[in-house]
User: Which sequence fits this backbone?
């Protein structure tokens, strides 16, 4: 099946309908294995059992960034290659990426309280993630205020690309700012190196979360295509009534 | 080139007239800085310590609020469409408008900043350096804001949406602007590196801003 | 399995994650059901899409 088939919304929907059950099953299995390994993982010599939060926090961070990368590629698809489903892919990725970024911030905060003593610490990584969440909220605001799906999609595509270009700059400046304001002790989220007994559960959970992202993404894309169908059918209906 | 100069002059003239926002930004800056001690307390030592940060935040907010009118008035009376159809590349037209905006809105902020710094008990010798950081950084704020202004005019929702879109992108400018200002005052870190990066951010935004804004206008208003 | 002295935080982290993921899934499922329902109604009324007619 050629990639070009994915450009046709109807055919895309058919493919999604077939593939989704398998994706869901794989996701469930991965989470079953991952959670078992994660919850039974050994305690970290520094952080004790709270290292178990890492198995949520790190994959969420990775997926938050992955979401924006996906939006940027979709943006290129919309603006440069004019792929019909590109803007749907971008719009679908935004709420999911934002949710994972939010999870990253909350779990980071809960991890920080027993480890560092406060709920919020302006360390470089958490602060960069906060700015990323703000960017996500901006894109979501664009989608919500657009009257026409197409117009909002193009504006959001441009913002995605501008954001992608700015993210390394923001990351660099926040890192630098953090070293300026770093208090005496150095805070590290996961210790200097990750022991293999912790690395394997982490990778399995990361894989599980990634499959969850992809599954949700395809499902949201399907919903968006259906939503646009409803809209065009309603427009047709209105025209027929007038005629 | 004549056309660009004409746009520049036109925008500046419009800004300084009654309906324009030329000195409103500076007035807002003044008011915000005045309100800060009411919230923070009159402790002069504390105000001096956080003074550069307050000034930078005030400048950021003042720049932001004035961005609305960058495209809105032209969009409303149709001249934006004419500019888009013109022979001059839209990127240059947009850059000329942004430059006019900075000259009428950003530059006044830079000029009155030393005066406001006095109110915040900032060292006299540091006021010049502070103004220099604002002079280097406010163009970045205008040109990054340009992107938000173009995006929100296309969607016909101005105001707060613009701020929501632009503020996260200005984080690096804020960080390095305040860092450079603090370096000049406290002297604990060198002024050079932070200031150079600030200038680099401004130059980068001079390029990125018009390109992204043009794309936003074209795609949004087509 | 002992979660140590900070068990509350670990449980809270997993609970928040579960809640957000469940909310996402719920939104996707509810939205899907709503769109299918509306599409069904429109099709019953005889409204068709242009591509279906030309189909």
Assistant:
């Amino acid at each position: 099946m050629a990639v070009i088939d994915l450009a046709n919304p109807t055919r895309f929907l058919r493919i999604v309908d077939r593939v989704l059950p398998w994706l869901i099953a794989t996701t469930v299995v991965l989470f079953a294995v991952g959670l078992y390994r994660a919850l039974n993982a050994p305690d970290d010599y520094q952080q004790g059992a709270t290292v178990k939060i890492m198995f949520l926090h790190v994959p969420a961070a990775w997926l938050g960034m992955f979401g924006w990368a996906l939006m940027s590629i979709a943006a290129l698809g919309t603006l440069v290659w004019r792929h019909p489903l590109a803007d749907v892919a971008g719009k679908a990725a935004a709420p999911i990426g934002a949710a994972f970024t939010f999870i990253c911030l909350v779990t980071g905060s809960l991890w920080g309280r027993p480890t560092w003593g406060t709920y919020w610490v302006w360390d470089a990584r958490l602060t960069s993630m906060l700015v990323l969440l703000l960017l996500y909220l901006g894109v979501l605001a664009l989608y919500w205020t657009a009257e026409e799906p197409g117009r909002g999609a193009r504006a959001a595509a441009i913002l995605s690309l501008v954001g992608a270009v700015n993210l390394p700059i923001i990351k660099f400046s926040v890192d630098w700012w953090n070293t300026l304001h770093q208090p005496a002790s150095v805070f590290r989220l996961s210790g200097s190196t990750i022991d293999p007994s912790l690395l394997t559960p982490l990778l399995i959970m990361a894989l599980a979360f990634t499959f969850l992202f992809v599954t949700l993404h395809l499902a949201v894309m399907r919903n968006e295509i259906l939503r646009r169908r409803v809209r065009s059918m309603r427009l047709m209906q209105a025209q027929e009534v007038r005629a | 080139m004549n056309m660009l100069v004409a746009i520049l002059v036109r925008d500046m003239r419009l800004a300084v007239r009654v309906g324009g926002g030329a000195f409103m930004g500076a007035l807002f800056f003044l008011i915000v800085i005045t309100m800060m001690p009411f919230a923070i307390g009159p402790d002069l030592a504390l105000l001096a310590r956080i003074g550069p940060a307050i000034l930078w935040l005030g400048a950021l907010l003042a720049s932001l609020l004035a961005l609305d009118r960058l495209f809105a008035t032209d969009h409303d009376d149709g001249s934006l469409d004419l500019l888009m159809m013109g022979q001059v590349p839209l990127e240059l037209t947009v850059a000329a408008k942004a430059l006019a905006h900075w000259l009428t809105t950003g530059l006044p902020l830079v000029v009155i900043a030393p005066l406001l710094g006095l109110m915040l008990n900032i060292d006299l010798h540091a006021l010049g350096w502070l103004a220099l950081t604002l002079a280097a950084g406010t163009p970045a704020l205008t040109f990054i804001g340009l992107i938000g202004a173009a995006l929100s005019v296309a969607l016909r929702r101005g105001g707060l949406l613009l701020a929501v879109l632009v503020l996260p992108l200005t984080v690096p400018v804020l960080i390095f602007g305040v860092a450079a200002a603090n370096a000049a005052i406290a002297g604990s870190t060198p002024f050079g590196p932070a200031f150079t990066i600030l200038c680099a951010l401004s130059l980068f935004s001079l390029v990125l801003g018009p390109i992204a804004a043009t794309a936003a206008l074209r795609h949004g208003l087509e | 399995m002992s979660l140590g002295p900070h068990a509350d935080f670990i449980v809270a982290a997993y609970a928040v994650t579960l809640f957000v993921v469940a909310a996402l899934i719920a939104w996707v499922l509810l939205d899907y059901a709503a769109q299918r329902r509306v599409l069904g109604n429109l099709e019953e009324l005889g409204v068709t899409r242009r591509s279906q007619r030309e189909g």
Chain B has a mean pLDDT of 87. Residues 2-221 of chain B form one domain. Chain B has one domain: 2-221. The radius of gyration of chain B is 18 Å.
